[in-house]
Each structure stands twice: as C-alpha cells, then as structure tokens.
Amino acid sequence: MDRPQLSRSRELGLTILAIVAAGASVNFFIVGTAGLIPFSEYRNYVLIPSFFIILFVAIYGYKKNKRLANRLVTGLWIGIIATLALEAIRIPSIYIQWIPHDDMIALPGKLLTNPPSIDNFNAMIMSDTYGQGKNMMKMASATDSMKTNTLSNRLEDTPKHTELNGMNDNLMTDSSTNPNSKIINNQQQSAKLTAQSENNKPNMTGANNVHQNDRYSMMMGDTMQASPFEFLIGGLYHFWNGATMAAVYTLVIGKGRWYYGLLWGFIIHIGMMLAPWMIPMVGPFGINYGPGYTIFVASLLAHLAYGAVLGILAQRFVKDKESLLNIVRSRQNS
What are the E-state strand segments in the chain? Predict the structure, then answer.
C-alpha cells in the first residue's frame, strides 16, 4: 500500500472512529433508558472515554491530517452555537408551558451524577402504558395515595356504604338524648370535611386534559429539581450533545448546502420524539402532554433553528467539500 493510500485509509478509519465516539453522547439516554447498559457503566466505560477519543482524533488531525481536524473541530464549535439557537426556542417554550420543565438539563444531570438503576428510573417516570394520560412523574407514595382516594370514592357509591351512612345520620339526629352524640357529631363532621378535601384534589390520571387550565396539574419536571451541581453537569452534557451531533454532521456531510442542516435537525427531532425516555413521559410525539401538539411544535422549531445555524456555519467554515461517501470512493479508486 503506497503512502497516499495509507493516509486516506487512516483518515477514513479515524473519521469513522470519531463519528462513533460523537454518537456516544446521545446514546447515553437511548441505551440507558432501554435497559441495555446501566447508566453508571455507560457513563464510566463509554461516555467518558468517548470524550478522550474525540480529543485524540482532533490532536492527531492537527498534526497529521488538517482536513480531518477541520471537519471535526469545526463541527464541535458550531454545534455549541447551534445549541444556543435551539435554546432560544426551547427556553421560552418552557415558560409558556408548551414543553415540560427543564428536564433536558436536570434529568441528564441527575443521571450522570447519581445514576439510578433502570427500575428506579422507570419508577421516576411512571406512566400509563395505554396512553391515557397517566404520564406525570410521581413517586410510588403518591401513587399509593391516589389508589386510596380512588378506593374511598368507589366505596361511597356502594349500597353497604350508603346504609352505614344512613345509620350514622340516624345516630346523630338528636344530640340531647345521647350524651356522646356531640362527640360523634364532631367526628363525623371532621370526616366529611376530610372527604370533601380529598375529593377536591386533582385527578392526576387525567391531568393532561386540563394541563393548561388547572393550576394544580403537575408538569413533568415538577419532581425533577436539580442541585446546582447537577444542573451544571446537565447543562454541560446538553451542550456537548449538541456539539457532537454537529460533529457527526460535518464528518459525514462536510461543507454541504446550508439546508442540509435543516434536514439533520429534523432527523434529530423525530428521533427525540420517538426516544425510549420520551414516550413513557409524554407519549410518542408528546401527545399525552397538554393539548397534545405543543411539545412536537416547540421541539420541531427548536431543532430546525439548530439545523439552520449548523448548516449555515458548516457551509461557511468547513473547508473541504468532500463528504464521507466521497472519501470512501476516493480510497477505493486509488
């Protein structure tokens, strides 16, 4: 093998290595939530090493292959800028309640700093597997409380419960003839007030239908409060994820037309809408959240903004027009 062919083979091999390493970031969620690899093991043995692999390829490229280095490093820094464009859409969408609270920051921060088992993760995002809106992030104790309230409400309609209520009412019709009747009456009134209070509590199983109007309905992120350190780690992961996805684009496409970035953003959007961590939370395409379309629209606009900025900057700053496919063909023809 002559020297130019060896150089092209090495460039192709390192490009593929960098693409695989860049994909490790987004796969942290996919593989972990699918239960294929525990979050802690993926973090320690895949995610962290992938950072050093990308660093190695970038340093090697600057010394041995300028084209590879330009495509990789340019993809990383323009990906960070493109993520800022995404945030310009995502953050306002949080405040108008088009998408849940900041779980794309808080959730990965928690998963990275204190990785749960897959069973504990599933408990965090308990949802209705039949897609009827039981998608609020409630812990097991809250579920037990809901079951108790539901059982109480059902008993109120049974003949036995009605009969007992009638007997209790008869016992308290005349407080003057029964010295204990005042005590019983006070207890009964307290029980009725408690029952009324419980009945006035929101039915979380149907919260998606009244999300916009019921101030008691709970957004997905209400139980996802992150510490400052978790929020920092989650934010770094979020921007690194945007950077690596952009690096995959520049390594595969090269310079490309600016609107190729729009297509890439749309592909990322569809992948997110069908991701294994999203469906249990809000259903496919976010149909179980709010009126059913806000997550899809907000995410689509955010990822199109990401893709547009990515495509424009890649066309401007990536120096080589060759795509990965062209590199493969040039190697085969040599």
Answer: none
Burial, 201: exposed, middle or buried (Cβ in 10 Å; 0-12, 13-18, 19+)?
exposed
C-alpha 146/C-alpha 231 separation (Å) is 31
Q: How far apart are CA 244 and CA 261, in angstroms?
A: 14
Contacts with 243 (C-beta within 8 Å, 6 or more apart), sequence order:
75, 76, 77, 79, 80, 83
Q: What is the pLDDT of residue 329?
A: 77
Gap between the Cα atoms of 173 and 28, Å rounded: 66
On whether the CB atoms of residues 265 and 308 are closer than 8 A, the answer is: yes
Is residue 328 within 8 Å of 12, Cβ to Cβ? yes
Element (H, E) at 271: helix 258-273
178 Rama class: left (phi>0) / alpha (psi -120 to 50) / beta: beta
> Which tens digit of pLDDT belongs to each residue from 19-74?
999 999 989 888 887 778 888 999 999 999 999 999 999 999 998 889 999 999 99
**Separation CA 263–CA 265 (nearest Å):** 5
d(CA 102, CA 113): 17
Dump pLDDT digits (tens) for 205-218.
333 333 333 332 33
> Which of the 8 DSSP states describes residue 12?
H
User: Distance between CA atoms of 19 and 252, rounded to whole angstroms?
Assistant: 8
* Global pTM value: 0.69
Helix (H, G, I), strand (E, B) or coil at 223: helix
Q: Please give the Cα distance from 334 to 332 (Å, whole number).
A: 6
Is the confidence at residue 299, as pLDDT, over 80?
yes
